[in-house]
Structure formats: C-alpha cells, structure tokens
Amino acid sequence: MTERPFTPPYPAPLAKKPGLLRRFYLGWWKSWLDMLHGRAYTMKLGVTQLPAGRAFMVNDMALVGRVLGDATQFPKHRMVHDMLAPMIGNSVFVSNGEEWAHQRAMINPAFVHTNLKRAFPLMAAATRDMIGRMRGQADAAGGRAVDVDPLMTHVTADVIFRTIFSVELGEAEAGAVYRAFGEYQSVSQRAHLLRMYRLPGFGLGRRAWRLGERVRAVFAPIVEARVAQGRSGERRDILDALLDARHPVSGAGFTSDELVDQLALIFLAGHETTATSLGWALYLLSECPEMQERLHGEIEAATGGGALEYEHVKALEGVRNLYREALRLYPPVGFLPRTSEVSMTMRDKRIAAGELMLVAPWLVHRNPGNWACPHAFAPDRFATPEGAEALKEAWIPFGKGERICIGAGFAQQEAALILAEVIRHFRLEYPAGRRRPEVVARLTLRPRDGFGLVLRAR
C-alpha cells in the first residue's frame, strides 16, 4: 500500500528576487532559504550581487557535476573556512589543494574504523541506550510532546564518540555539545552575513571562537591524555590511527592541535548532519501513521521479532527509502560553496577568478526538472525506475566528486538502525494544534524550535 503523499513545511518562495536590504533582513532574522524566489528552483545558473561580490547559484545538473567534480578548478570557497574554523580549525574539510590531499592521505587509514560491519556493534549499543532515554522521557512526559532533536544529537554523537575514542558520551557532555553548537550556528551565520555586507562583526567572531572552544573542550582532554600516554598495542579506534598517521612528504605526525582539529571535524561531521536528518525523518513519520505500521511490519519480518543485526539493516529497503527521502527534502547542508580558480564563461555569464559559486542540494532536490512532485514526501518514489535514476543523478546530500563525504555509508547505516529501533519501540504522533516545524538553514537545516513529538510505547 502506498500512503497518500503530503507536503511538509518549507519556506514559501518569494515572488521575485529580493533587494539588498530585504535579503539582509531575511538572512538575519530567518535564514538563507527565506531569500529564495520562485525562479531559483528552476533556473540553470543565477547570479546575485552582494557588497562583497557576486554569488553564482549553480542549479543545472551538468554544471553541478562540473563544479563538484573538479576540486582543483573549483576548490572550496574561503567562506567555508571562515564559518567553520572556530570549530574545526584548518582540518581536511576546509583545506584545499596539496594541503587537502596530504591531510586526506593521513586520515584515510583511520576510516577503517568506520567499516560498516566493524562499527555496527558500537552503533547498536548507543542505539539501545537511546531507546532507554526515550522511554524515560516518554514516561515523564505523560502523553505530552518530547523534543527528539537533542535525543538524536546525543545518540549520533555517542556513536561517533565511541568510534573515535572508545568511550561513551555522557548526558552532560551531549547536552553541552547540543547547546553550544546550536548557538554557534546562529552566531556563525550572522557573522558571515555581516562579512558579505562588509559590515563590522560586532564581536560575533570572538563569540564564535568561544563557542567552538566549548565543543572542543568535550574531547580535547581525551586527546591530550592519549598523546601523553603514547601508542601501545593494536589500533582500537580512530584516535589511535591518527596518532600513527604520517605526512606523505615530510613524514611528520599530527601535532596535538592538528589532532584536535581533525577530530573536531570527524566528531561534528559524524553526528550533526545525521542528527538533523534523523529529526526530520521522525517528524515526517509522525505525520504518516500508516507508513509507521508498514515499516514496523517490514522490520519484524526481517528480524523475526529478534534483535536487529547487521544483516537485517541492509534488507530494510522501506526504512532506507524513508531516510533517503528525508535527506532529499531536508539535506543537512543546504549549500556547498565553491570558488572559481580561473576566469571562465558558463551559460553566457562571465565568471571572474575567485568568485563565489554555490551548489545547493536544497534546490537540486526540489527542482521539478529532477524530481516529480519535488516538495511532496514520497519515499516510495525510490522504488520506481524514475526515482532510482534521480537517486543516482540528482541526489547529493553528501556532495559529489572527489570531495564527497567519506562517511556517507556510515551515516546511512547508522540512520537506518536508529530509525528502525525507534519504529519498533514507539508510535510517533505530531501534537494536535502545534505549528509545523519551521526550517532554518544555517550551517545545517535545523527546525527553529525543535521537533516536539508524542512518543507512545508499543
């Protein structure tokens, strides 16, 4: 049975492109998504003039493939470093050229610890602990809504913490990360907006660095202790592998500060994007009780009523399609900034070297030229030939090309496991009379006021 699709919330497109003042107002009080006008969803290549320069929006799939597929000609724009440096330093996510290539060569061996079968027991243990926390909060709520956003942040941060450091992430530390990074997103966005308009920073930059230090302080002592202790025995986690890593040219290892930078990236990228997409997936499920029951039946058929094992997750195609559709509608990173390394012409537009080029998964995923009924929630679309083709060509929540997210498979397995366990243990309801979540695009696509859902134990 196929449930009737519904259209979940998204910012209504503006009737026309906003002017500079309107754009600033929307960016300050809302987010970048609210600046989009109707034609942005169908245009091939748009251009916007800002005080700090021009921004080109790349929305044609051939051009998207060209920009994301050539990291030499289209490296990451400096805004990526400006927005993330207080949190992740000059790690592999923000570096370019030879520096990026050398860092990537050093960290690649560490990702053996994210091998899906090897990591599964860590994911399963963290998920069991999450179900216990959800039961406790559901009981305490007594039928009232529970905010699942911090719960998803805790479990995904716990998974990556166990993978990096071989220790669990406690309640206090998870709460500190959730609050600090939530505030950091707002501060970083506004600081960037001021830079784009060539306005003073009003102390937002210093505030961003303080918030970054609060998050890094959760794990920096672990790194320092392991560096002081030195390596012994087999590699048991990502930190051990990074302690062993050597520069391919100089032979030098990472310094303590460089280790913290790389681990901050792995920690944040490994949990934040998955957490926000899981929150959206659970919200979407809460609007579709029939789908919940169908997926519950799929899970029980695969497991025979027993524990969810590694082999079962691969068989849960309905659950995997639910997550794919959540990532399509609400890609955690809505915009991928690149820069043109040399002057060029695209679609009769002259682009100077160094200008900002934006590939927007949000727009690619909602372009009617790429997807049928693009704003509708319809996970079954991926079971059709057209949907399967669009999945290969126009589904880019993890990016594309040589800088595609190295943890894409890890994230999708983790998400399928977490969603399946939530569906097994709870029926989700969206509270009657509550406003639908408002999408806010900062560093990731978060709900403005969390995801308040009623959790009813099965």
From TrEMBL:
Transmembrane residues, as ranges? none
One Pfam family from the UniProt entry?
p450
PROSITE patterns in the record: CYTOCHROME_P450
Instruction: From the UniProt annotation, give the residues forming the signal peptide.
Output: none
Lipid metabolism recorded as keyword: no
Cofactor(s) required for function per UniProt: heme
Q: Name one GO molecular function term.
A: monooxygenase activity
UniProt keyword annotations, A-Z: Heme, Iron, Metal-binding, Monooxygenase, Oxidoreductase
Which InterPro entries does the record match to this protein?
Cyt_P450, Cyt_P450_CS, Cyt_P450_E_grp-IV, Cyt_P450_sf, Cytochrome_P450_Monoox
- Annotated positions binding heme: 405
Does the record carry Protein transport as a key word? Answer: no
Protein family membership: Belongs to the cytochrome P450 family.
State the name under which the record lists this protein: Cytochrome P450
* Record organism: Novosphingobium sediminicola
Q: What is the lineage of its organism?
A: Bacteria, Pseudomonadati, Pseudomonadota, Alphaproteobacteria, Sphingomonadales
